[in-house]
Design goal:
Blueprint (H helix, E strand, L loop, with lengths): L1 H4 L4 E2 L18 E3 L2 E8 L1 H10 L2 E3 L5 H14 L4 E6 L8 E2 L24 E4 L8 E3 L5 E7 L4 H7 L3
Parallel strand pairs: 5-9
Antiparallel strand pairs: 1-2, 2-3, 3-9, 4-9, 5-6, 5-7, 7-8
The chain binds methyl 2-acetamido-2-deoxy-alpha-D-glucopyranoside and calcium ion.
Length: 162
């Protein structure tokens, strides 16, 4: 079970059960401070909306150390790609983090990003293994990883009456 896969600081945000994004299940989201891992299907925009509800945004992975840590945790929960906060929707070929941080570190899988088919403008981690990034169509429904900023999870649960 998840307890054996995750480190001690893992908490399950009961508040996720009270949050709503149309058509997106959030009840299985788990937080490993400061991240929230949500294994159920959402488009990139729905994922951003859910992350905003958690007081954050889709995760920014700025160093190899952070990227590996998040990828390993994510892969332990679900061995499948998950949205992160990277896209080139604004300008094809120019990848930007949702939070505006500079894109210094990247871990694209070989031959990615390739804007395959009708176009792929949103970034997902963990394609075919931890810490390999791929670009995918933004309306594809994937699990996702949020990064929370300055919100106390226990306080969030208390204030939502859980
Ligand atoms: O071959 C890599 C290629 O594989 C798929 O397209 C056939 C991926 N698309 C989906 O999974 C929707 C591409 O993103 C990937 O580049
Ligand atoms: Ca691709």
């Amino acid at each position: 079970d998840a307890q054996t896969l995750l480190p001690e600081e893992t908490v399950v945000p009961a508040a996720a059960g009270a949050m709503k994004v149309d058509g997106v299940a959030l009840t299985r989201c788990v937080a490993v401070v400061p991240y929230v891992f949500c294994p159920d299907a959402a488009s990139f925009d729905q994922a951003e909306e859910a992350c905003a509800g958690f007081g954050g945004q889709l995760v920014t992975l700025q160093t190899q150390q952070e990227s590996e840590r998040v990828a390993d945790l994510a892969w332990g929960l679900r061995d499948w790609p998950l949205w992160m906060g990277l896209s080139d929707r604004q300008e094809e070929g120019v990848w930007r983090w949702s939070g505006g941080d500079p894109v210094d570190y990247t871990a694209w899988k070989r031959h990615e990003p390739n804007d395959y088919g009708a176009g792929e403008d949103c970034g997902a981690m963990n394609r075919g293994g931890p810490e390999r990034w791929n670009d995918l169509p933004c309306d594809k429904r994937l699990g996702f990883v949020c990064e929370r900023s300055g919100v106390d999870l226990e306080e969030m649960d208390r204030s939502s009456g859980q």
